[in-house]
Amino acid sequence: MFKEKENTLVYGFLLLGLLCSALELLSTCKLANLTVKAELGCCLLHRSGRLTIDGCVLQCETNPLDHLSYPIVSTAGDEDIENILSHVEVKETVTGKIKANSVTVLQTRIEGGAKAVSTRGDLVLQRVRVMYSKAYLYFWFDVDYE
């Protein structure tokens, strides 16, 4: 169920008892000046690639399952890439580019959810900066390999 209104994406439904994400990102991309509102689950599910979120608004609706909702969830890791690369001979510089999973957040409003980010792969939250304004919090941070 999608409702589109002036660069706003609203998403939310329960599928087989599992919480879903508003957007699932499987490759390198940049989101800019977009409002994503998730009624259940997460706003952005990052599976792989380099994701840049610039000047966006991520909103998770408050509900009884708030402890399960996160604006950003990253499950990116290099386990699958290691299995693929073990069968072929690849230069180290190319391997580094293939394994390039990360999330970069720039001047983005994050509202609701138990935490701003949940990582379930090999990536960790780094270099966090927050700016407080009268009505909102703006975030800058990276989710990358240690």
Task: Please characterize this protein's 3D structure.
InterPro entries: SHCBP1-like. This is SKP5. It comes from Arabidopsis thaliana (Mouse-ear cress). By secondary structure, the chain is mainly beta. Helix content is 10%, strand content 49%. It is built from two helices and 15 strands. The strands form three sheets. Strands 1, 2, 6, 7, 9, 10, 12, 14 and 15 form a nine-stranded mixed sheet that branches. A four-stranded parallel sheet has the order 5-8-11-13, with no helix packed on it. It has a two-stranded antiparallel ribbon with strand order 3-4. Strand 3 and strand 4 form a beta hairpin. The radius of gyration is 16 Å and the shape is globular.
